[in-house]
Specification:
7 strands, alpha+beta, four-stranded mixed β-sheet, elongated, 1 helix, 141 residues, three-stranded antiparallel β-sheet
Amino acid sequence: MGRRFATKPARGLLVLAVGVAVFGAVYGLAASLTVSSQSLGAGNAASASCQSATLTSSYATSYSSTLPGYIVGVVTVNGLDTTAGHCASKAFKVDLINSANTSLGQVTGTTPSSGTSFTADFTSSNLSAANVAGIHVLITG
């Protein structure tokens, strides 16, 4: 007997299922990225010389029918030390990067004078969450 091959519609469904699985995996990994460091440096790390504690980051996504797909919304950075002489009221830069370590978008601002977190809003940048491979956080001043 000869070998039976799947029909074109069955192959199409298989390709679609694999695509959805890959997108889901990438989306899940990208949305749970964490960055941390205790010294200045390159790579997927937070650089905050004003404190020794670890910073963590995460971002929210929302569906965009114009993309279509999920876009990055607000990036939240936690673990900030705003006690006297540390990271309060310092300049920050948050970069979202792709797998080639190229910036997809950047938001700048000033850390708060109190509290342990700050945000960077990427909503208007319309950046596809599927393209995000890392987050760079830099606090200076």
